[in-house]
Amino acid sequence: MLVERLWRTVKHEEVYLHAYESASAAHAGIDRHFNWYNAARPHSSLEKQTPNEAYAALLPAVKLAA
């Protein structure tokens, strides 16, 4: 379900808004979107953190568990 929700977001926020000239242009646009999505877009489910910020906050706990 998480992947379906993520792909829906990618389609509505990136793919449907651009008429790509080629597969490589689509790849570049989707790559740019994922970089923005992970580094700059705050998520309500992560208490307004970006996924990168949330992941970085978990790293110390993961290292202690290992």
Tally of helical runs = 3
Number of domain modules: 1
For the CA atoms, what is the radius of gyration?
A: 15 Å
Quaternary arrangement of the chains shown?
single chain
Unreliable stretches (pLDDT < 50, length at least 5) are none
Shape: elongated
Structural class: mainly alpha
> What is the mean pLDDT?
91
Residues in helices, as a percent range: 55-70%
Strand content: under 5%
What is the N-to-C succession of helices and strands? HHH
How many extended strands? 0
Main beta-sheet annotation? none
Notes on the structure:
By secondary structure, the protein is mainly α. It has one domain (2-65). It has helices spanning 2-13, 23-39, 51-65. The protein is elongated. The two termini are 29 Å apart. The model has no long low-confidence stretch (mean pLDDT 91).
What can be said about this structure in brief?
With 66 residues, the protein is mainly alpha-helical. It has helices spanning 2-13, 23-39, 51-65.
